[in-house]
User: What shape does this take?
Amino acid sequence: MLNDLSSFSAAVTADRLDAEWSFDRSTGRYRDERGRFLSRKAVHAIVDKRIEKLATKLRRYTRMMTDGNIDFDQWQESVREAIKAAHIQNAIIGKGGRDNMTASDFGKIGQRLRQEYSYLQGFARDLLEQRISAPMALARIGLYAESTRGSYWQGSELRQQERGYSLMRRVLDPMAQHCDDCVRYARAGIVSIGSLPLPGQRCECRARCRCSVEYLKQQLSSVPV
Assistant: This one.
């Protein structure tokens, strides 16, 4: 339930989010099993892998429902629970572990989930009234998995703000196609945190957005003596 996100998260993830890596609070970075720092690219790859697994799971549930192996209510509950767990997990990865999460952080996840559930309800209505075909449903359900990446970026921004970072810049993935919105955000360069939307927000790419964010600290100007 939305009012029990904190206790629910303890069941799906912990301080050591995988057996091989953990978060170092002093540096604000993750370490592998040998104590070596994980690069941002490596952390993003972990998030991507979890999203891929979620997409596979959601498509399996949807295929089971369209094939008549589970009923509509079972499908909807299974999808809701899978989405909820993934948003929590990705937010915790972004924030730097379960112990770094606050009641306010969980409240922000709750707000995001309420919006996702609203979208899911519309999708469910289309399915129930057979306004979309089974192949379309399988394609569309994957977007709910992609949307969980936004919770990672939300958690990451909160963590960086707490560590004193006040600037951000949007970075385009050189291997992806980008909408005009994302190109415009990247061209804005270095700006104050909050001046630009996070990846997937207010852009035509939406859940398919492959942009990333870099955070920087404000450099104090030197005064000649």
Observations:
- Residues 80 and 120 are 8 Å apart (CA to CA).
